[in-house]
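hiii, so i know i said id send this last week but things got crazy w the move. better late than never?? heres the sequnce for the chain we talked about at the cafe, plus the structure i predicted for it. fair warning i was half asleep when i ran it
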Amino acid sequence: KHAKVEKERLLLEQENFALETQNLLLEKKQLEQDIDIKNKELTTYVIYLSQKNEFIDSITQKLVSGNFKMNKETSQWIDSIASEMKHNIEGSTWNEFEVRFQQVNKDFYLKLNQKYPDLTTNERRLCAFLYLNMSSKDIASITFQSLKSLEVARSRLRKKMNLDRDENLTSVLQQL
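okay and structure toks below
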């Protein structure tokens, strides 16, 4: 009778362990889905910021290049506004992105710095954008770089990371 009770207890413990394992797997899956959703939200937000910045940049360009008949004081005032607008969009976009990115992907920079400690700030920034699977065009509009300079930056990054031509840079970063 004692052996039978012990056997039942062991069976219940096994069932409990199996249920706990299943629960942990479901929690892990849910957390992974939450991270995917947050990354998609982050990408959408960055694209929104990019479009907003392009709009502000076009207004700034129109203000600066406009052939308005105005006195020197007004011209200087418009130039100062254009300069302030340009400075604002360049700094604030990255700061907002970085805060949100670190909230979603807490360990990314830590792992990136451990594996590739000699990356510059701009290279780490590029890695974050690539981690989100963003296109070169989107990255260029956010960072105010030309597509050509962005391609050069990607090439240099690949060299620093010792990646072969057939290795996908984005996949390598997403595996960190």
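btw The helical segments are 2-65, 72-104, 108-115, 121-131, 136-143, 147-160, 169-174. thought thatd interest u
miss u guys!!
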